[in-house]
Design goal:
about 10% strand; 21 helices; 12 strands; about 55% helix; four-stranded mixed beta sheet
């Protein structure tokens, strides 16, 4: 039998190794921690509100977005659209084109929105999905110059072949297939030449504009624009140095191995060919995550793929405080053996130990119906101020009241209930911390993936199974770290069912049924507010 590569002993890499990583001898790994700390310290300087922003960039942004919105607004006022869906589709198209003109920062925002199926209008999500990997690529001359500058050598001194046409192009970078002189097939991620300067300039513009949006429009009031800009800056600045991304790949691969999550693999970054703007990594091939028919024809259990993902990311966050922070269809694909390959590690959630324990208490409280524990955990995560009156939050949000099936409410009642909750949250100074936002965004993606890969999955049964599995695998650790008696932990399915908006008597609920309920709720709300 062939001996597995040495690095598969400590990380979830593939057995067909083009090279083997030695954690003690990775050139770029030594500086990644320092770079990450520097990026965090840079954010406050970038978002500090200045008396005047970069005026040239501000004019460009306002002009491009204004040109996108104004014609749509005029047509809408004149009743030129046959339906609200047609109106939203037209606006979404114009916004996507405007965002592509504005470049990396706004494309990244579009990518985040494209992961919010169920949170944003379907027309906007569908249009913005094209910003994941269908953005116009940089010309070959700029790509070659960037590669040669960062690697300090001509392309033909490092690669025997290098495809001039990009495999995919997104906000920060594009990727090209290539072959090293030593024969290994690789993917080369190349940063757009001016993206680092442009992102920092755009963040300055956003920070200047954000305070003017407070209270101006309902969505902005809910989001807290200055806090949203800070959150976005924390996320995107770390993507501007690929040495941090390569280190993230190694860390996540190691974390998955420690958790025995064999259903996921990470491509190996090259131990030498990684710089600030260049990332050379192992090339993997598989099925697009949306290619359900192809996977099933190959005998892959798509329901198993989803089940693995649902527990893997929860375990990563709760046990190690590390998880892939930007899941979407373009960032993963399924190998022929059924394992899922994770790609693009520019955004990785990293919880401090304090926040990890708070996250653990939040999840434990959700499965045991501990309302006070959940609210206190949100305070420790930074979603609510530390001095929040926990009992008042429970009372004002009605968390201690019997669950109301939202499908029994009219559109007016649904809108009024949402407004009541939003008003209460705002009154307590609620916000969405970076790590919680990334985790929720991932869960929203997995939710949408269930619709495609496993629509008949019993959600209640699966949540019960995940809770039981987690307690069996990590119950003792959870008890030690949180100071609770594992024998006193009792999973409350009533709490989980309440989170789905169904009564405690509900025994099964397939994802298909859950989506039908959501569609009904959304339709009633849209009909009431006339969009």
């Amino acid at each position: 039998m062939t001996t597995p590569p040495a690095d598969t002993v400590w990380a979830n890499f593939t057995d067909d190794a083009p090279w083997v990583l030695d954690r003690s001898d990775i050139a770029w790994d030594r500086v990644a921690v320092v770079l990450r700390d520097n990026a965090r310290r840079e954010v406050p300087r970038l978002i500090k509100r200045r008396r005047t922003p970069p005026l040239g960039r501000l004019v460009v942004v306002v002009a491009v977005l204004g040109w996108a919105i104004a014609p749509w607004w005029i047509r809408k006022k004149r009743g030129r659209f046959g339906s609200p869906e047609q109106s939203r589709a037209h606006l979404s198209l114009r916004l996507r084109r405007a965002i592509e003109r504005l470049g990396a920062t706004y494309i990244k925002l579009a990518q985040i929105i494209s992961s919010g199926e169920g949170l944003f209008p379907a027309e906007l999500v569908d249009e913005f999905k094209r910003c994941r990997d269908q953005v116009p690529a940089e010309p070959w001359d700029k790509v070659r110059l960037t590669v040669e500058q960062d690697l300090g050598a001509r392309i033909d001194q490092v690669f025997s072949s290098f495809d001039r046409t990009a495999l995919a192009a997104a906000s920060i970078a594009q990727v090209h297939a290539a072959t090293l002189l030593t024969g290994e097939e690789v993917v080369v991620k190349v940063q757009r030449p001016t993206v680092s300067t442009l992102v920092r300039k755009d963040l300055t513009v956003m920070a200047w504009l954000a305070p003017f949006l407070i209270g101006r429009i309902p969505v902005a009031a809910l989001a807290n624009p200055p806090a949203l800009v800070e959150l976005f800056a924390e996320t995107i600045v770390e993507e501007l140095d690929f040495r941090m991304e390569a280190a993230n790949m190694v860390d996540v691969a190691g974390m998955l191995h420690e958790l025995d999550q064999a259903g996921y693999v990470v491509p190996r970054p090259h131990p030498r060919l990684v710089t600030r703007r260049i990332l050379v990594m192992q090339r993997l091939r598989g099925f697009n995550f949306d290619d359900v028919a192809g996977m099933r024809a190959a005998g892959i259990d798509t329901e198993a793929v989803i089940k693995t993902g649902m527990i893997a990311f929860m375990e990563g966050a709760l046990i190690h405080g590390v998880f892939h922070g930007d899941l979407h269809g373009g960032n993963l694909f399924v190998l022929p053996d059924g394992r899922t390959a994770l790609l693009d590690f520019g955004i990785v959630g990293r919880l401090t130990n304090k926040k990890r324990l708070a996250f653990m208490r939040l999840m434990l409280g959700a499965t045991t119906n501990d309302l006070r524990g959940q609210v206190k955990a949100l305070c420790d995560l930074g979603a609510l101020p530390q001095d929040t009156d926990i009992d008042a939050v429970i009372r004002d949000l009605g968390l201690d009241q019997p669950t109301i099936d939202p499908t029994t409410l009219s559109g007016e009642e649904l809108v009024r209930e949402v407004q009541r909750i939003v008003k209460a949250l705002l009154s307590y100074g609620a916000k969405l911390p970076k790590e919680l936002m990334l985790y929720v965004k991932n869960m929203v993606f997995l939710d949408g993936a269930i619709a495609r890969l496993a629509p008949d999955l019993d959600i209640i049964g699966e949540l019960t199974s995940i809770s039981m599995t987690f307690m069996q695998r990590h119950g003792m650790r959870l008890a030690q770290e949180l100071g609770v008696n594992p024998d006193d932990i009792e999973i409350d399915m009533g709490s989980l069912k309440a989170g789905l908006g169904v009564s405690e008597s509900t025994e099964t609920l397939t994802y298909r049924q859950l989506q039908e309920r959501r569609d009904l709720i959304n339709r009633r709300m849209r009909d009431h507010i006339g969009i």
